């Protein structure tokens, strides 16, 4: 029944601090949302994808019961236990990262999954300062690096309709006791799933309309005139030769009564994307549907970046959609901006890739999403020997598509003009597995839920030929899908009709 025998487990427990024990069962009557709700008290993240080319697309991953957290605190990096006890701290993020991963001293017998377990969390936009000394610290009280390590992972395979449950067992109390605890934990999880008392769900209609405008009751840190004035300031910097492009964002906020899971359920329906995620931290919840990979590194050491730059709203019908796509593909400003950011992606990967391994694929394809279409390209490389995969994340973060070029000067201008802490927005949502695979996306099309307020942020790339009003409209178009999801979740919360099952 289990992935390894008791005898094998005990042998591994005598050699390793942590041993993984797994079980795979048929789960054809369950969905990831149902499973998350079944373990609501201890469920901490849900990772999914609606992209058939993504390694996440076949699976949904649910993390239960975080046992360690790694986060920044007062310019140091602190590892804390599940009860918030400080275990240790380091002054350097890379050192802290390697130390926390090594602390598990995990057995190599892991399930063959894209993400078999490990770290899940985010590196915020301002985390750039941890490896770029020119970037100033903006005081906010928020964490700019925050990762969790869960002791149990549920991996739901959609096509096969099977569920793999993996428990990472600490062996410090002895091998026999460790096996008893791990096997008992797996049996307990299977019993909960079999009983299936996940509660009731508000119904979601795929074609439901809002009773009000998506921007009704929404406030922003910018007025239209203020935003357009800052666009003109960036164009002045461009004229002086400081930068070629800078991404100027605005933050929308509104009060909400819905919980994070309800927002996520709606968002994954109205804005399906290559990266879907719902992450619960003690201080805030992160709900996202990002279209853009930051960087991926797998066990073959191949690296990938998917730059996205160039945007049009979706048409009201197929004819208008095709006309807008043609307009985008022929827009010299958009093409020049995209090419510049592809070059930046090549440079970012080049710092950690083997010489001559950088390649560009599928140049300037048009990718379609629920509310917008984008120009996209794929850039790949091969990780250098003796380079930690996490260094690839540092090398590419923050993405040029949400900062600008040259990157450091663009970020300085962003901090001057926006004059606020971006936090999660435009940073990286990432996992780093015990199998040394890393995947990450740019934290765009993302909702941050904190103390009953939902925050949505969106930016536009300002270049020499930018029209200020059009850049303002681009930020609003990008925010619409998320604001629609929030408003729809709130609308459904007020209605009486409920169902017991979510359909995938």
TrEMBL record:
InterPro entries: ADC_synthase, Anth_synth_I-like, Anth_synth_I_N, Anth_synth_I_PabB, Chorismate_C. This is Anthranilate synthase component 1. Residues 224-478 form the Chorismate-utilising enzyme C-terminal domain. Its cofactor is Mg(2+). Keywords: Amino-acid biosynthesis, Aromatic amino acid biosynthesis, Lyase, Magnesium, Metal-binding, Tryptophan biosynthesis. The gene is trpE. The keyword Cytoplasm does not apply. Part of a heterotetrameric complex that catalyzes the two-step biosynthesis of anthranilate, an intermediate in the biosynthesis of L-tryptophan. In the first step, the glutamine-binding beta subunit (TrpG) of anthranilate synthase (AS) provides the glutamine amidotransferase activity which generates ammonia as a substrate that, along with chorismate, is used in the second step, catalyzed by the large alpha subunit of AS (TrpE) to produce anthranilate. In the absence of TrpG, TrpE can synthesize anthranilate directly from chorismate and high concentrations of ammonia. It comes from Alkalicoccus halolimnae. It holds the Pfam family Anth_synt_I_N. PANTHER family: AMINOBENZOATE/ANTHRANILATE SYNTHASE, ISOCHORISMATE SYNTHASE MENF. It catalyses: chorismate + L-glutamine = anthranilate + pyruvate + L-glutamate + H(+). Heterotetramer consisting of two non-identical subunits: a beta subunit (TrpG) and a large alpha subunit (TrpE).
